[in-house]
Amino acid sequence: MAERTVTIASASGLHARPAGIFAQAAAQQPATVTIEKAGGSAVQASSMLMLMTLGAGHGDEVTLRAEGEGAEESVNALADLLEKDLDSEE
């Protein structure tokens, strides 16, 4: 299992556009990835609806976990995405 904790850079957190971009990227990963906010439950990273239930805002820390083939690469790719301001991405 691969695991990494990152801080959300998007100004609006994981809501609307950033959640959609992140969920789409998570769905394209070879490993199954979950995301969890401290004190909360882990949710499927590929589900935009579940991402929005996290209530993860700008500056919040979240933990990504992945299992399966390509787990480390999947976690790193998604962590890199969260460390960008997805609100301003074209």
**Terminal-residue CA separation:** 32 Å
Radius of gyration: 11 Å
List segments where confidence is low: pLDDT < 50 over at least 5 consecutive residues.
none
Task: Estimate the strand proportion.
Answer: 15-25%
Would you tell me the structural class of the helices and strands? alpha+beta
How would you state the average pLDDT, rounded? 94
Tell me the overall shape.
globular
Largest sheet report? 4 strands, antiparallel
The order of strands across the largest sheet is: 1-4-2-3
Helix content: 25-40%
Order of helices and strands: EHEEHEH
Descriptive overview:
- The structure is a single chain.
- This protein is α+β, with helices and mostly antiparallel strands and 90 residues long.
- Helices cover 33% and strands 23% of the residues.
- The chain is built from three helices and four strands; from the N terminus they run E-H-E-E-H-E-H.
- It has helices at 16-27, 48-53, 71-82, and strands at residues 2-7, 32-37, 43-44, 61-67.
- The chain has a four-stranded antiparallel β-sheet with strand order 1-4-2-3, covered by helices on one side.
- A hairpin with a 5-residue loop joins strand 2 and strand 3 (43-44).
- The radius of gyration is 11 Å and the shape is globular.
- The mean pLDDT is 94.
Secondary structure blueprint with pairings:
Elements: E1 2-7, H1 16-27, E2 32-37, E3 43-44, H2 48-53, E4 61-67, H3 71-82
Antiparallel strand pairs: 1-4, 2-3, 2-4
For the structure shown, list the relevant keywords.
90 residues, 4 strands, four-stranded antiparallel β-sheet, 3 helices, 33% helix, globular, single chain
